[in-house]
Structure formats: structure tokens, C-alpha cells
């Protein structure tokens, strides 16, 4: 084989298939829902990014995503000497590429203000340019008037929150007026534990977004990431409307490295749909299980009573586990499933 | 992250989880069957291999296999100065390891004769030593008397078949007497197209076995293989008896590199259970499809009428394909699904 | 370790080093020369590429290159509705990034005509806009007047040469007038054996260029390439002038997959500087050698008299080889070192 | 290319080169010394290992090592029912394989006592069986009488040192009698910071050994290691005697993950021979450097005055660094070069 390969190299010119391949991300089947892999925050040369809008559609499809929003800054356009400001253009340019790939493209923008209140993404907008207003309240009200879903971006970004994320009076005011309903718990290469707490306490929809400016593969390589931050959306249908409804109902989980962040209900659902068991031997005191995870998530768990002894269950793999034999099962903390900071989800083993 | 990782390295000693992980091989669900991943040919220090029998159980489990047979040579035991001959021992030593992992261990041996008739594996044997007889007919009859399933190993092995595999009168005689019912179409790092033809014409059960002597990871690395040759067994239950019944009924497919070798029926079943489609756009002349393959198989296909334009659909991936719009669908040859040499399976696209 | 890593993930937010790393390409030391890794053909959003010019500098540095030329089309600017034509701008925008990385940035353009005579790159230009002329002779004469080094791009590109590369009367005329002195033997994902012959017969400087339009990592992934096509330049100093002098003197080798294409002299030099030997045993009839290759090139060789038995010597590796013991050494063909099509370089083993 | 590859798979059987490749480990040239990559602790089926002795030679050569010692337990031979005890045999069996590969094979054994004093490896022994004595003093004296170099193995192994390594009176007594002169600072998958301190204070030769029992690739995979623990030996010649002299003189460095452990002198030597610099720009206040590391070591450093800002310099890579411009250079701690626990080596940048 190796020999043939080398011969080929010498004897013939190379044929390229010029064929694009999409790497599928394996998520479990959740009856009643499509688990859509989404990224709602990214940039192009039309604001301060370094790629053409079509690149965003192509690279998302190849990485296995189902939906994206290009969200160029309205107020920050450092390339404008060479690329005149044109707010609706990134969507228009990427639309055909996305359609040819069956990728859902959400029309969006980033409202870019100094702190407070910082940056906000408006998704499902109708007219980007109209949202470009100096006053942040005016901008957010226009977004709302257009029916947009709005999230607060990177509340813990050091450039705007050097001492960590702060919920300021301005945020409280905007929140009470219903001008934003989601929040980034993960942005780019960091996550904000305190913001996860807010999301739960204030019932804000959780987002994990890449905020990528460079080509995505450059970003992943530089940050040593296997994949970008992803917002998992539990949609009743695979469509922009399906996504909007799920965002409004808070049916999302943020996925970043091995972390899954969101409501307990959805984290448990993901775990139980991903992991199955086989009983290897049932002894008097312990049951030996094989736990199998056919998803691309990884799980890390420890007996609640014995937190030192951690078991890792990587993507598409199985492990053998000895579980104490008790009447009602034994509690395990799944340490990478977090509804709140430092509060992992608990499951019982053996599974029912 | 990278920073933390490095800090850890300097500040703390390392904890090992001492935890074994099994990489799952993704095969599609086939209603009514368990698709078991098996290897029925391998050696240990008890014949001319270089590992202890327990290694064979551990490495098979880790690679994602469901069942193996250790088949040390009865007649060739070059280590005997240091490891006295003891035919039943490899099974006995590996049994406990296999049981602790839920791996099915089939009791087997390799009957090792010069050509003709060459080497044969007897599986599901009862008493290895009794099969160790000078006369090959006597050995095979004893195996049959024990209820063994017997296959002819590596018919195209150059050391015994320098000009390619030959079906000699001796093989015909053994075959007519029902002394073997299976045949290796793949052994170690090679496959034998002509033998694939025999398997179909004579209704011999197809095998793809590793015949590994060294540690399996050494073998895979040296031969640049992603995984060992695997015999896929379509069993009605996950048990030794389930496997035996499937072998007797010829419900196997040999898997080697990207090749899948066996009966048309099972190759089609594997393809259709692995690949799904989504219609991206339906034009007047062509339909644009996304074909998605969530299995660990790869597929390679070309329009029957247009064989130059090949589409590759790797494991866990999707591709976009433009299919001519016709009433009854368009025929494609799936070039790596072979019931016979040079006779790929044909499927129709769009899928029904 | 794994355990610590996972704990970190759960307990802390992630620190990014925000640090760029350059993967060094290992080339041997050639006394008197710097072996510079260069790519003289690539595009940005200022013609039909999809990235901002700074991306080209960053990705080349990270891939281990020493010098690049951004060569946007003068005549083909499909983004001009959004990015007004501005010929000198890509160089200006990338200049600062390149300087901060110590990357040599050559000022260049692609003169883009239909066939004949096709596309030409002019390197070391002074005023891009002046070269933008309808008549190709005028354009090439202006490039020459500016002191540019000019090469004919992708002579075998199927869109312009459907039946393979053809040296037309127009090329002969330009060549005689000295309007081009180099030629791409490799472009993007293909190489042209017949053009390698021309380069040798007409003493044209050999180029292997990426002609990349997308982000480079997308290109490498889609084409399953370990690295882009690279023009190795043997320069007496690491500077633009050093490169220009080497191009003028024809001191280049094209590197693509495992192929090294260029003058015999430089191919031999690369081999002998990359490969060393250790005598393991010296028998009466054969000498057993360990050949060690510490470069990132791979080599593939076979005894001239026994071409079937090929030895592969991958990057940063060694192999054991049994060489017949003769008075003057035994001739081996190094099959991936090609001064002309199908004419590999011959070396003798053992090495002196 | 991909297309051809797949076609090949379907049309032809596969040729194997049956060729073994050695992956070279890149270490810098140190004038006057050969930097040999060694592992002085490993097992086979002749004690409690799971591979045949020849495997140890083959896998070490393939991983890029220069010398190994097989050190089966004298006192612990759990396979003896099937593999009768035969102390000198592993060396005899592996000798020919090692010779054919040019690998240095050191004759050794592991003296295996309960704590105190624990396990000791004797290297360069003459008669293994004679060292097999119940009394540990007698065993170590016999080893010394044979001219062996003796090291204390895994002083911090939890099974024998549940609260960490302890230097007991018995060790002091043996040490004073000169019965051991080396110590494992790294064993298998862990390192012992306190033992590093002992090695420095008592001038014991530092070892990092794999103590591998399973096939090495299984071990590396399970522990997620890129390579085994390695003892770097700075020998004046590439021979058993050269190694013995270097061990006696304490010229070793232990290498494990990214850590390099040993005497300051040799750690500095390794760093300075591995890393070179290029000045990118020299400003008034800072100098911008490119630091290039062509070795397979990684380095991690931080300004001594500013320890938070860590720079990682991976294997075969470069980074850009801004260094304050001062008269005498700026001190940096190289945090993974440790002569003692928590006491990294300091270097100055820019390099002279």
C-alpha cells in the first residue's frame, strides 16, 4: 500500500477530487428534538475579521455545524478604507454558499458599545443599518422592534471587565425592559463561571460562541482546540424558526472543550441519551459495568461519596466501572456537566 | 489551557488514572442483528507470537472488538525451549481477562500443514491437543468431531502459494467432505481477490483476520493501518453460540482498510444502514443531496455511466452530491463493496 | 495527568497564551547557503482570494516559511463591488505583519491573460498598477523594465490547457525576448511532468507554489496535504536580494508531497546533506547500514538493478538496509528526486 | 491522489514493505558527547511482563532509543508455571535482534525486595543467577563484585512508599557502602520531586525509566504519553563502556513529558544547544527575538521578575518574544528544567 502510494506519486500527476467533506459531530438522538450545532458570533472583513463572508459558511459546514450567524460590528469597521461599510452585505454574500450546503444562515449584527453595557448580538434582524445608532438603548429597542433575539456578549471579556463580569445597573435596566434574553457563558477561548450562575438565576438563554475573527482552523490550532465553542440548540424543527423558538424557550446548552453548560434538564438528557451500559458481572457487593458513550462529548464522573476517584469516558469509547451494589443505585457527579458554577449534575449508576 | 497544563507538569507529580479505554467502532444498527466485530486468528508466545495471551484480550477490547479466537499453531512452537508446549493454555490464561471485559473468547487452534492443504483454523474446539495429529485429514476430522467451525487460512500467502491462491484437488476433497466451511479473504495485510470469487461460488463463509504475532499496535503502525482486518459477524445474539450460528449461515463481511467483502445482501444492508440523505435542492435536471455516513466505514462511489467521477464519503462525514433527476433513480457503483473481484455493489440515488 | 487536566477544565476558566507558534520545517544545513522555504503565488480578497492580506503573512510564518509573495490578479477582481481595486494595497497591508515576524515579503502581482500565453507572476515589482495593461507583451515588458523576475504560472492548468501543457509560439517568443525566466512545475495540488522537462531543457527556474485562494489550512485539509507546495531557494543570504539572485541563477527545488523537483546538482546536495549512515554489520557479501534522515523530506529508493524492492525513508527516521558489498558501491535510484520526468537521481550506497 | 489511493485499494491487493522504520528523536549536537536516549528498566514474560524479549529491542529501536536494559525480576516470576525461571535468558534472546538493529543492549536484572530497601536495578551484570540471593545486602554486594552499576528504583512507588519516598537507615547504610550510585527520579508514569532533591544532594545519577511491562505502545496510549520516560546519557562514545562511564560520572538527564531533570550544567547545555535566536527588531526599550528550538524537547519560560507571563516553545518550533533591553540581559526561568524540586534553571535573554 505504502509502496503503491509512493509509486503513484512518482509516476502520475495528482488528481484532486476538489471535493469538500463535512466532518459530522456525533450527538445523540433526543426524541422530539433536532440537536442543532450552532455558532451565533463571528466576523468577516466587513468589520474586523480577516475572511470573506463565504468562508464562514464553508468552514462551519465542514466542521459539522447546522447554523451560524455572521455578526459583524456595526460600530467598528477598521477596514473601511478598503472595504466600504455596508452592513447587510456579509449576509447577502454568504447566503448562496450556505443555501448550497444546507446550512442555516441567521441574519445578525453585533451592537458594539463601550462598557456599560458592552457588546450585544442581535439575531434574526431585518435591517442591520437601522440598528446602527449611537445610543445603545435606541439600538437595542430597534433590534427588538425588528423581532430580534438579543444576547449579551462576553460579559467577562478582560478588555471590558478587567475584574471579572459585573451585572451593572445598566444591564439590570436593559434586562427588565426585555431588551436581551440570552448571554454568552463561553466566548472565543474562555468561559465565565459567574455568568453561568446569572444565566440560571435570571433564566437567560445560554450561548457558547466562537467570536472568531481569523480563519477558524487558525483559531483552533492556535488555541489547541478540537472544535470551536458550540451552542447546542434543541429545536423542534431544523429551520430558522425552529432555532428562534428554541432560543426564546431557553433550550440550549453551551459546549466548550469537555464542558457542557446549561439547564440541568438538558444536561441530564444529553448524558442519558449518549451513554448506555452493559452489565459485565454482578457480584454481591459490586456490579461491573461497561459504560459506552457513542457521542462526541466526553464525560468525567466520580462517586459523590468518593470524589477523588475520577472516571473519564471520552468520545466514542467505553470504560469498565465497578459500582457498589445498593438498592437505589449510587450517586455520581458528572463533573463536566454544569448547570451552575461548581455544581455538577448528579446521576445514578447503574443506569435504569 | 496550555498554560495550565504546563504549570501542572512542573508543580505536581502526575496522577495516572490507570484506566483502560475502549475505542468504540461505529457500525450501524441492523434490526434483528448484533453486528459483532471479530478477529479469529492470532498468536501468542505459546506458538510463534511475541505476547502473553492476556494481551490479546486487552488489546482487542481496547480496539473495539467484540470477540476473538487465539489460534496458536499446534505444529509450530519455536519457543518451546523456554515455553513448554501446552495447547490449551492460551485460552485458559486469557479467559479471565476476557470475562472481566465482556469480550467473547472463542476456543481455537491453527492446524499448520505444508501446502497442500496449508493452514486451517478450527474454532469452538473442545480439546486442542487431540487435534494435533500428523495427518491433516485426521486433524480436520477430529476438529469436525468436536463440533468445530473450520476455515482455510491465507490461501494466497506467498510462502505457500507463490503464484497466487490455487484450489487444489486436496482442497476439493476436504471441501466435499465438509471439513471446512470458511476461508480467509483477508489475512494480515493482504487480500486475495480470487479467493473472494471462491467464497461466493462455493458459499464459503468470508473471514478477514489479523493473524497478528506482534503486539497489535506495532503491527498497525508498521503497516500503516487504522485498524486490524475485522470479520463482521451478523449474529442474532451476542454470545459464542450466536457467533457460531452466524458463521454456519455465512452471515459475515470482511473489513480491511476501506474494503468490505462479502455477500451482496449484507454489503447493501451495511451501506443503507450507514448512509442517510438530505435533499438540499431539487432542480429540474439534478437533485442536490447531502449524503451522511455516521459509521466508521468509508464509501467510494461513482455513477455507473460516468465511472471517472468518484465521490468519497469518509467515516463520520457528509458530502454534497448532484444526482441526475430521473424517474427511477440513477445507478451508482459503490466501488469498495465487493461481493466478487471487480464486481462492486450497485445502489440507486437518491435513496428511497 | 489526564485527571489534572480535566479538573482544571472544570474548576478554572481557561487562560489562553494568545501566543503564535511557528512550526519549523527541518531542512539540512548546506554550507554557503540558506535553504529558504518560499511560496511565490497566493491571493487575497483584493482579487479572488478569501482572506485579508495579513492572513497570508501570519499563516506562512506559522507553517515555517521564510518568504512569500502575494500575487493578486491585476485583471481579475471579482470582489470589486465591495473591495475597490487597489493594486498595491495587499503588499502595504501585509508589510507590517511580515516585518514583525521576520518574514520576507516580496512585492508581486499576477498578470492574468487568456491562453496563450496564460498567467504570469512578476516578483520584485515596483509599481503594480503600471503593469496592468491589456497587451500581454506590454505588461511583461513593463515588469521587466521594473526589474521583476517573471515566471509562467500553471502551464498545465486544465482550464487553460485541457490536453496538457503546450509550449506555443507565443511562449517561445516571450522566452526569447527574456520576458520570463521561471516556470511553475507545481501549482496548487498538481504537478506537470512535461513542464519539468522544459525547465531542464530551457534552463528555467523551477517553482512549486500554492496559488492558494482560501485560508491555507482549509486548502491543506481539503487536499489532504501535510504542507503546501514550497519553492526551496538556495540563497547566499537571507534577504529579498539573496532570493532574487538565487532565482536568477536557477538555484531552486520544487517540493510537493514527497517529490523534489529541480536540477540534479541541488537534489543530490539535498539528499546527501539530509541522509547519514551508520554501519551496523559488514558481512562478506552485504553490508548492513542504518540510513538516517533528520530532515522533513522523505526519500524513496531502490537498487537500480532491482527496482521492485523499494525502501522508504520517511522524515526524521531511520531504516536498516542490506547493501551488496562491491568495490565501488551499488547504484540506487532515489525515485522521488526528479530532475526530469521519469528520470530519478542516482546515488551510491554505502555513502562515502 | 486520494482518488488514486482508493482505486488502488479496490483494484490491487496490497503490498506490504514489511519494513521497520525508526522514528528519530531530535536532540541537539553537544560537542564531545553523544546524547544517547536510554531506558534501563523493563520486563518480559520471563518475570511479570507480557512480551517476548525480542519485542523490547524492536520497540526501543523504533521509538528512537539507543540503549536499553531488560531487567526482569529475580525474585518475582509469576509466569513460572508456563515459563520456567531462567535468569540469563531474556538477554540472550534479545541480543541478536539488538545487534541487527545497532541497538545497545545492557545486561541487567531487577533485585526485588520488600521495603526497606525496595527494588534495585543492577546494570552491566555478568551472572544474573548469582545475584539472586535472599539477603538484599548479599545481592547488592554480589552485583558490585560483578562490576554492576546499581540504582534504586521508584523510591516513591505508592505500593512501597504510601506516604511518599523515604530515605531510611537501610538506604543510608547501602549508600555509604557504595552499593548503589543511581536513583529513579521518574518511573513509569510518575516523577518524585523529593527524590530529585536527593539526587542533587547526594550526587546520585538521575534515571528516568519506563518500567514497562506491557507492549510499549499500549503503555503510551493508555497513559496518553508521546514517548516513554528516557534517561539521556552524555557519553564520550556510543558503546556499553561509554554508557557505563557516563553513568558513573553522573552525566545523565531524566526526560519525562516536557520535564528535564538533572544537574544544572547539563540542563543549561541542552537548552543552549537546542535553542537559537534571530533578532527581528531592536527597539529602544525592547528587543524582538525569534527563538527557535529544533529539538524534540519543549521549553517553558517566564521572565524571573514577571512569572505570570509564560512562553511555551514546543518541539521543532519558534516563537516571537519581546525582551526588555538591558545592559546585561534579562533573567528568565526555564520552568521545565529542574535540577531540584521547584528550582528551575535561569537563563538570560537575548542569548549571547
Give a structural overview.
Four copies of one chain form a homotetramer. Chain A is α+β, with helices and mostly antiparallel strands and 352 residues long. The first copy, chain A, has two domains: 249 residues, TIM Barrel (Alpha-Beta Barrel), CATH 3.20.20.140; 75 residues, no CATH class. Helices cover 26% and strands 29% of the residues of chain A. In chain A, strands 2, 3, 4, 5, 6, 7, 8, 9, 10, 11, 12 and 19 form a twelve-stranded mixed β-sheet that branches. Chain A has a four-stranded antiparallel β-sheet with strand order 16-15-18-20. In chain A, strands 13-14-17 form a three-stranded antiparallel β-sheet. In chain A, strand 11 and strand 12 form a beta hairpin. Chain A is globular, with a radius of gyration of 22 Å. Chain A starts with a helix and ends with a strand. Chains A and C meet through helix 1, helix 2, strand 8 and helix 8 of A and helix 1, helix 2, strand 8 and helix 8 of C. Strand 17 of chain C pairs antiparallel with strand 1 of chain D.
Index terms:
10 helices, homotetramer, globular, TIM Barrel, four-stranded antiparallel β-sheet, 352 residues
Which parts of chain A are unreliable, with pLDDT below 50 for 5 consecutive residues or more? Answer: 1-17
CATH C-level name of the largest domain in chain A: Alpha Beta
The helix-strand sequence of chain A is HEEHEHEEHHEHEEHEHEHEEHEEEEEEEE
Mean pLDDT of chain A: 94
Task: Determine the oligomeric state from the structure.
Answer: homotetramer
Number of helices of chain A: 10
Kindly give the count of domains of chain A. 2
Main β-sheet description of chain A: 12 strands, mixed
Cα distance spanning the termini of chain A: 48 Å
